[in-house]
Write a structure and sequence with these properties.
Elements lengths: L1 H77 L7 E7 L4 H11 L5 E8 L5 H9 L9 H18 L2 H10 E6 L6 E6 L7 H19 L4 E5 L9 H6 L3 E3 L5 H11 L5 E2 L19 H10 L1
Parallel strand pairs: 1-2, 1-4, 4-5, 5-6, 6-7
Antiparallel strand pairs: 2-3
Helix pairs in contact: 1-8, 2-8, 3-5, 4-6
């Protein structure tokens, strides 16, 4: 037993000695190899990063050229296309200044005027609306959903046509407003983010939004929902579900073209996001030359 124990102890010592020698040798020769490998990887990554930066610079330059061309061509393409029309802008929730600016810029060469802007409160002030509509401080009868639905449809029509209910409840309906709603030819819509609302508040907001759209859409006015490429979450699906046309890149020249044509009657979801039907409306319809050919044939 003593011999066996000494034998195993010696064997283990030899193994550990071999491991120690291997580590020393590896650190001596492997260190250089690791250093060279590290340098190669760093050089490769640096080269890839430089190439990626060059590609980004090229793409940004192309985008800048494209936007410059679009901005120059835009006025010529839509010059006076909406001459004399009165357009309103309504936001469901907070209205970003970029949306207002994009809509104003889009309308300048068209001959149309942005005559009214408003931001609908989200969530809606249901109790305040009920007291105003009830008169003498009394709340109007009916449950909250019924109130919001009926009120939304009425006020949606009156955003376009004007009316007593909108005038009486304007401060309860909107958190900010300017201009004069009524006698509108078109209504541009933007929808903010409802994700921070409680579930009941979100449901009431959505019911009011949909009811306003339903009322406005029952008029002769053209409705167009808009947002920016960066808008999250997107409301394009919401617009589609409510059967109104939409533009998801309103800040771009192409988006402004789409807005103007949609206000003029073009139908669809336009833009660059997944929910879009196509980038632009059909700008030029093919000319039917059959009548000309028939006339020429008769003359011949």
């Amino acid at each position: 037993m003593g011999y066996s124990a000494r034998y195993h102890a010696a064997s283990l010592a030899a193994v550990f000695l071999a491991l120690a020698i291997g580590i020393l040798i590896g650190s001596e020769f492997g260190g250089d190899l690791l250093t060279e490998t590290k340098k190669d990887i760093e050089q490769s990554l640096t080269s890839d990063l430089d190439n990626a930066r060059d590609e980004i610079d090229d793409l940004n330059q192309q985008l800048e050229w494209s936007d410059d061309f679009g901005n120059r061509a835009y006025p010529l393409l839509i010059d006076s296309r909406l001459a004399g029309q009165r357009i309103g802008l309504v936001s469901f929730g907070e209205l970003p200044s970029g949306i207002t600016k994009s809509v104003e810029t889009a309308l300048v060469p068209t001959g149309a005027k942005l005559v009214a802007v408003g931001a609908v409160r989200q969530p809606p002030s249901v109790d305040r609306l009920g007291r105003v509509l009830g008169g003498d401080g009394k709340r109007v009868s009916g449950n909250r959903d019924e109130l919001l639905q009926k009120y939304g449809i009425v006020v949606g029509r009156q955003l376009v046509n004007g009316g007593r209910v909108l005038r009486a409840t304007r401060s309860e309906l909107m958190s900010q407003t300017s201009g004069q709603f009524g006698n509108l030819d078109g209504l541009v819509l933007f929808r903010g983010d409802l994700s921070e609302l409680e579930s009941e508040e979100e449901a009431e907001s959505e019911l009011l939004d949909e009811s306003i759209i339903r009322g406005a859409d029952s008029t002769r006015a053209k409705l167009v929902g808009v947002e920016q490429v960066s808008t999250e979450p997107s409301s394009i699906e919401f617009y589609s579900e409510n059967e109104i046309n939409s533009v998801d890149n309103i800040e771009q020249p192409a988006g402004k073209v789409s807005l103007v044509f949609a206000l003029g009657g073009a139908e669809g979801s336009f833009g660059v996001k997944d929910g879009a039907d196509r980038v632009l409306p059909e700008l030029l319809k093919p000319v039917d030359r059959s009548a000309d050919r028939q006339s020429a044939g008769k003359q011949g």
